Amino acid sequence: MSLLGCVLGGAAGDGLGAPIEFTSIDNIRRSHGPAGVVDLPSLEITDDTQMVLFTLEGLLLARQHGIDPRLTVRAAYARWLHTQGGPPVADDGWLMADRRLHSRRAPGHTCITALKHNEKNNSKGCGGVMRAAPVAVWSSDVREVFSLAVDTARMTHHHPSGYLSAGTLAVIVQALLAGADLPSAVGVARAELVRWDGHEEQSSLLDKVMTLGPLTPEEIESSLGGGWVGEEALAIGLHAALVGTDFASAVRIAVNHSGDSDSTGSICGNILGARDGVDAIPAPWLSVLELRDVMERLVLSW
């Protein structure tokens, strides 16, 4: 039960999946062997983890100054946008000053466009859910966490499956941090999810995941999709967390398929890191994890 485990675990999953995003499982096996990607000499994060860190920074500033977290998270996303080539903004935090975070790691088009132009869209891409886990620590109230995660996701993604997936993940992580087992945590999140209009895609896939045993990468794609949209990314990450025998095996399941490997790996890592803590993450992975020092500093500030 660990916020640091959640953040580091998500980053490790992100890093393991990053090199094979957009790659078919056949090509993954050709390049890495029958088991797919198992380990890497370095785990370099993507925009997924960058946005997790800026989300957490926004929440920290809200707590420190007694400000509505929606305002501070939105401002944090504007700072992230600047690191990706966006317009200059006031630096109210400290992440933006770290030049390592100015590296462009294939940032999502929807996130960039929505933040740059403040335009409403109908996107249900996974860019909302993949950054939602830190919202879990904002409050012990389920509805407050779900609503805040929804609102932070809705800053860029306006289809219900794009933002309700974020609320669902945040509450799953919240329950795990409070000591619940994973099926119970999913039950808590589902009970809140179905109160919201437009929940049907997410709740249906969530229910399906809870009935499945282990799947091959091909079966993941045919049963749960590619993870490019919110409800699918959460479903794949959760499925891997449920069927994996430990952190490493689960994250390997989460990334080795023909879809959005870094996002599904990140979500799986968030879930299991929150439940099992830092010690569950393989030490060799932690030793080569990019920006681990930044993650530790942020979490210690909480």
Break the fold down into its secondary structure elements and pairings.
Blueprint: H1 3-17, H2 25-32, H3 47-65, H4 69-83, H5 109-117, H6 142-153, H7 160-177, H8 182-193, H9 200-209, H10 217-224, H11 230-243, H12 247-255, H13 261-276, H14 283-287, H15 292-301
Task: Sum up the overall morphology in one term.
Answer: globular
Q: CATH homologous superfamily, by name?
A: ADP-ribosylation/Crystallin J1
Query: Largest sheet, if any?
Result: none
Supply the helix-strand structural class.
Answer: mainly alpha
What does this structure look like?
This protein is 60% helix and 0% strand. It is built from 15 helices and no strands. By secondary structure, it is an all-alpha fold. Helix 1 packs antiparallel against helix 3. 53% of the residues are buried. The protein has a single domain, classed as Orthogonal Bundle (ADP-ribosylglycohydrolase fold), CATH 1.10.4080.10. The chain is globular, with a radius of gyration of 17 Å. It starts with a helix and ends with a helix.
Summary of the model, kept short:
With 302 residues, this protein is an all-alpha fold.
How would you describe this structure in keywords?
302 residues; 15 helices; globular; ADP-ribosylglycohydrolase fold; mainly alpha; 60% helix; 0% strand
